[in-house]
Each structure stands twice: as C-alpha cells, then as structure tokens.
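Need a sequence for this fold. Nothing fancy.
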C-alpha cells in the first residue's frame, strides 16, 4: 500500500503530546459504497466513531458535483443498495494536495489552551479542482488517506483528514472531497506498487 500523502501547513507540525482524558469517542471512517447509475449519486457510509455506534449516509449528486452532500442517519446494520457501481483505487499521487492556514488561534480544552488552525485545503486531479475548509488542533497537518476513481472516469474521490476532537485527546477525522472533470480522464493510473513517500509540503 502506498504511504498516505501528508501536507504540513506550519513550520512546526510535530504533534504535541495529548492530555490524558477519558476516551468516549474515536476517529471516524468511511466505506465507499459506490455510484447509483440511475440516480447519478455517489454513496458513502460513515462510521462516526464513539460508543454510540452512530452511522451516516453521505450522498453526492454527480450531476451537481459542487453541491454539498446530503447526510442522513443510517442504521448500524444498513447495507449498500443493490446495483451500485464500484469505484477503483487511484494512486495517491494522482490527486494533488495543497493549502494554507486561513486563521490561527488558541482554543480552551479542559484546563489548557491548544493551537487551533482553520485550514483552506485545495485538491486537484486532471482538470478538476476542489477546495475544503478544515479545522485542525495542535498541528496544521492534512493527510490524504484514500483516493478513488469513480465509474465513467470523470470524477475522483479523495478522503483527507486532520486532527480533531481535542477534548478527547485528539483523533484523525476524515472528510470526503469530490472532484469532477469536464470530460472523462483518459487512461487513469490505477494503484500499483508502493511509490516512494513524498516529503511533507510546508507552507510558510
């Protein structure tokens, strides 16, 4: 497996020690269910994390890729609808990751103050462009944890993460970002042998 792309948006991005706290939550994660070809929608199942066992369904409209996804609650045993077309993996270096720190402040957590970073993340794939606003704590680092090519070759999906839930000690929280080109991308590169890891990009 290729190592994930890491974007470091500060001069000092080493994670600071997390304060001890009672863990009641956890990191979220996504399962890419696939594309409903009739509705032209991409469906993702999110495990929100935590003791509640909460799940959500994310629905992206591929006919309006810049529109915000629709989120609805999902039963824990909810299954993917029949007839979905599965995406394929892309090499992580197919999707370019850049960004900047829009704002920086101190956030009160328990009995201390920690760094809060409001980040503007920019992603590009072929002729497609997308931006995402993230909030990160302690370290202004964004990691790309997964990249997928959707059926038809016109759209790609990237899963990126930053450090969240500081009140619980800090967890990597994932966010899906959809990128769609005007035309299908010809001969996309499928994920192959692990490529040499790229050094973190640092933005002054």
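Here you go.
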């Amino acid at each position: 497996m290729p190592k994930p792309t890491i974007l470091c948006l500060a001069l000092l991005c080493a994670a600071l020690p997390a304060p001890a706290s009672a863990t009641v939550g956890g990191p979220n994660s996504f399962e890419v269910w696939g594309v409903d070809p009739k509705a032209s929608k991409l469906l993702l199942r999110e495990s929100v994390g935590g003791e509640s066992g909460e799940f959500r369904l994310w629905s992206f409209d591929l006919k309006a890729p810049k529109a915000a996804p629709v989120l609805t609650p999902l039963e824990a045993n909810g299954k993917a609808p029949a007839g979905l077309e599965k995406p394929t993996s892309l090499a992580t270096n197919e999707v370019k990751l850049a960004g900047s720190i829009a704002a920086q402040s101190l956030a009160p957590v328990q009995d201390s103050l920690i760094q809060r970073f409001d980040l503007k993340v920019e992603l590009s794939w072929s002729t497609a462009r997308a931006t995402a606003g993230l909030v990160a704590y302690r370290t202004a680092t964004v990691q790309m944890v997964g990249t997928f090519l959707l059926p038809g070759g016109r759209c790609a999906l990237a899963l990126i993460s930053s450090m969240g839930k500081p009140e619980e000690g800090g967890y990597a929280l994932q966010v899906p970002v959809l990128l769609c080109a005007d035309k299908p991308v010809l001969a996309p590169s499928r994920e192959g042998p692990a490529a040499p890891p790229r050094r973190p990009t640092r933005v002054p």
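For context: Residues 14-23, 188-204 have pLDDT under 50 and may be disordered.
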